[in-house]
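Worked example 2:
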Amino acid sequence: MGSKRLYVGNLNYQTSEDKLKEVFGAHGEVVSVTIIQGKGFGFVEMDSDEAANKAKEALNNADVDGRNVRVDDARPKREGGGGGGGGGGFRR
């Protein structure tokens, strides 16, 4: 069984990665925590689907540092790192 990443949104900008590790750790083993600075969201990777589902159920809409956080399954990482197609040039 592999690890599972969760999206955590509506974070207080003062919330630390250590705080999230502590909060999510109450529901299973935390593999990693990443907060996207200045954006109000981050990701928590739990060691199993079971732990991730328990954390998601317990913490979605829970108060963390004065904000009701949103917890959901993270979307898979995009392959290739970006996109942006180019525009076709002007043709006559």
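The domain at 4-61 is CATH 3.30.70.330 (Alpha-Beta Plaits). The helical segments are 17-25, 49-59.
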